[in-house]
Amino acid sequence: MASGGVSYRNGSALKSSMKSSSPSFNSTPKTSLKSRASAAANPSYGGLRRSSSGSLGGGGRDDTGVPGRVRVAVRLRPRNAEESVADADFADCVELQPELKRLKLRRNNWDSETYEFDEVLTEFASQKRVYEVVAKPVVESVLEGYNGTVMAYGQTGTGKTFTLGRLGEEDTAARGIMVRSMEDILADISPETDSLSVSYLQLYMETVQDLLAPENDNISILEDPKTGDVSVPGATLVDIRDQQSFVELLRVGEAHRFAANTKLNTESSRSHAILMVHVKRSIKGKHDRELPLPNENGNASLLVKSFKPPIVRKSKLVVVDLAGSERIDKSGSEGHTLEEAKSINLSLSALGKCINALAENSAHVPVRDSKLTRLLRDSFGGTARTSLVITIGPSPRHRGETASTIMFGQRAMKVENMVKIKEEFDYKSLCRRLDIQLDKLIAENERQQKSFDDEVERLRADAEIRIAEAESNYAKALENERLKYQRDYMESIKKLEEQWLMNQKVRGGDKKVGTRDEFLDKTCSQEGSKPSSSEEIAEVKQLLQNEIDLRQSAEEEVVNLKSQVVQWKKLEAAGNVEIFNLRKLLEDEAGQKVKLEEEISILRSQLLQLSFEADETRRGLDGVGPGKAFTGLDSLMSQVRHLQLKDSENGQKASVAKLFEQVGLHKILSLLESEDADVRIHAVKVVANLAAEEANQEKIVEAGGLSSLLMLLRSSEDETIRRVAAGAIANLAMNESNQELIMAQGGISLLSITAADAEDPQTLRMVAGAIANLCGNDKLQTKLRGEGGIKALLGMVRSGHPDVLAQVARGIANFAKCESRASSQGTKTRRSFLIEDGALPWIVQNANNEASPIRRHIELALCHLAQHEVNAKDMICGGALWELVRISQDCSREDIRTLAQRTLTSSPTFQSEMRRLRIEC
Known about the structure:
The chain is α+β, with helices and mostly antiparallel strands. The chain contains 34 helices and 22 strands. Strand 5 and strand 6 form a beta hairpin. The longest helix is centred in the middle third of the chain and has 92 residues. The protein starts with 5 loop residues before the first strand and ends in a 5-residue tail after the last helix. Its main location: cytoplasm. Keywords: ATP-binding, Coiled coil, Cytoplasm, Cytoskeleton, Microtubule, Motor protein, Nucleotide-binding, Repeat. Belongs to the TRAFAC class myosin-kinesin ATPase superfamily. Kinesin family. Ungrouped subfamily. It is found in: Cytoplasm, Cytoskeleton.
């Protein structure tokens, strides 16, 4: 894409370059991390002091949280193939002391500077141990609702990308912090209630680019003016459901990241990679709230229950793989690669300035000098829990870059964050629930209204049908009665006419009967008295009355139905009132939320004031003398732990005067006999730290500390106590006056027994260091050898650990030097104890050891042994002559080379053998 050798990481080229350039960390961790609860409760993780001047970039905030210092771990990369060849004759510029959490940076073979960190990881530390020490506490805090940051800083080629971004597809043990963090997060969250999303970005040439969508190459950074939170809304946000999809996402992002071939690394990152993991978790509320709603009668009805808004915790994990800090002349950058290097160095320089300002409590923090510092505003001096791992190399050629990296870590340890949980009410979720409930009520009301309308319509249609049937039946009945009466009438008329004609014929024409009409009227009047016709009329009237009653009842039923319609309309109006009340309640909830936020702001400011007052009270209590502030064993142990905790926070040990003033050495030594193993461990660590200072050693011995340490070494079965006690004895053994006391109290026998029983390399290194210090005393050589000190020293070579072998070689060199001094004074009359105890074969075998500390001490031991003529024949038979010749010609140190030449020249036996073998020196 760009000139200057820049390329994308993709395909097989990525894998091959990673194999050739990444360091190999292949040892397994010796300790495992405690559970999340104990890790979160561990006081050494977070500081006890209040936060500095706001977040990265100043800007005070109203809310408060838990103070927590930036944690810094240092990781040493082993020598690569190029350094093994180029630096074969030079010692490493770095010496690690992981049990003391110290690092020594050598200026030369005699002078060095000591630094302390929260964790010191050797070149043998595994990826799992690095994750558990550096990132796991941060991941657990993110799962509890805090923001967290894990960042790697160091020179190009020291293993930052290997530590953070290694996928580990071929070897699962090589997985980096990104992959292991996602495994823990996915194992803890619930897919039903929680959400997890990821963004993957790179900061290249002061431009934020999306590694998941390369076309999105100019993303803006936004800051919330109220909370100060930094976000990149233009970045691609991908929901994560399983580990495989996350690994595939990392592979895609890594393929789009800029890289180039430089002198320091064949696959050097040319951009800062930033992985953002957003976690959203729902927390069930403690109480439910009932909202009474009035019904049509004015009484309260609990139609809506449990409308307390749910609590949501939003947290963010940021993993930052910074591009390497490097010198332009060493990296060989030119052209476009040179411009990239300048941009990288400018952004890292801006980050360093911000950290310096925070560490010094400066009023102004230049956060806007770079987009990198804007993105990391919450990580340094903000509200996130931050862990920093600095990576360094062992080569003395890069001592300047290593020193710069170490100082960056030291300054970062002084930065304090005020971590706080990201917890809020989910009013959106509550609103959605109320909307759903409201929709259900409206739908139910509509269904009831429709059912009511259908029922009214059915009753009206039924009434109309019944009325029509009644009217039809009534009309038919009337017509039938009319026709019946008409037929009866015509039949009656016909009968009367026939009767009249018959009467006419019977009576003849003489007697006048009357007219026909008169006869019919008379007949009708006679028949009118018959009851049959009147009863039929009454029956018809009764039927008519019944039909009238039916009609009236139908009309009454219609009236009742109309009244029911009116009542349903009233119910509908009451439902509308309830809906209106619900909406009003929602508005009241919004107003209460605003009031609660104002009250929370006031309470936070009050809490801040109370915290300041508590700090003043605590500082006043710290000034109380011993015996007033602490009484009893429990109080004493609390103070010792408190002092150790202060040491870990401040990055340096408390002064001896302050320690003695507050606790007292005799009280600390009394804790070494405590029945509580945890108390003994803390106490022996305090004594070991004090013994490391030469000014304290005489006081410890006078107070009986040496006897207590030897007692612990004799009686304790705890590996940690034995290791730390041996280290304290080794520190005391550096003083010549203490060496005789150690020997007089059987110290060499105890150290020999411990060396035979121990398997831990660090314990063996401490024991070997103590014996090596004792080997340097001329007066104690015979007694030391008689009590098995030389055999114990040689027995520890079984470990094979480089640190143990270096101490063994140092002890042999000290012993040989004392024998050589005795020989020069004319008191040496017999061959060396080292040769008699069988040390010569091991000395010859390791005379050309790859590790420079081992090789340097063995070369000195050979030169000192050769100065005594009685040892010459044994050395010739054991092959030591050839090594002496090699040392005199090829040794990298001039003083050792000169000593070997002088020894070979002054020994008649060696000269005779060299002439016989025709060796020129």
